[in-house]
Amino acid sequence: MSGNIYNSRTMKNGFLGFDASFMLDFVVSALVLIVPILLYSLYVVKVQKNFTLHRNLQIVLGVVLLVAVAAFEIDTQLVHGGWENIVNKNPDEPRLTGAAYLSVQRILRFHLIFAITTPFLWVITLVYALRKFPNPPQPGVHSKLHSTLGWLSVIDIVMTSVTGLWFYYAAFVA
Ligand code: HEM
């Protein structure tokens, strides 16, 4: 497949300047961008009481997250055959071996606790909110449960982002 754009050096190694992959750089960028938008959505709902804008922002964030993660997983698992093949893409000069490899693998497992639970929690929070709040959204009987689900979803996505960046740093930058 020489000569196609995917295999050009930049795309193969990502665009952040490290030895990763295009989709890894894409998903890392998405995880970083999501946090300020999420903070804005919380400001909008808690301070401005603009429940409709909060709903719309959360739906967009949820869809962007789902698309980014699905594309990332397809690329990492099906195209590359696992993260090991991205981090050690050059078998003659592997980036990570022995204790360093095991340490990054531990960080990845920790990251996966949050990364796997987040989409489930987000879907539950979104679906419940859309069904139980009136339209246009207003505080009501669903507020208490939504507050619990909402804050758990916020913590989960922030932990996904922080541990994801930690993995990226350990695997491709350090
Ligand atoms: C994953 C998606 C969502 C997350 C993470 C989320 C998160 C939150 C958080 C943390 C709060 C503040 C709770 C508090 O401390 O009082 C909140 C409030 C609120 N959210 Fe969401 N939200 C999401 C989706 C939605 C959707 C789709 C709707 C509307 C259909 C909605 C409507 C509201 C309303 C009306 C409040 C104010 C509740 C009250 O003050 O009683 N949220 N949300």
UniProtKB/TrEMBL annotation:
Keyword Transport: no
Transmembrane helix found in the keyword field: yes
Keywords, sorted A to Z: Membrane, Transmembrane, Transmembrane helix
Name of the protein in question: DUF420 domain-containing protein
Regions that span the bilayer: 20-45, 57-74, 110-130, 151-171
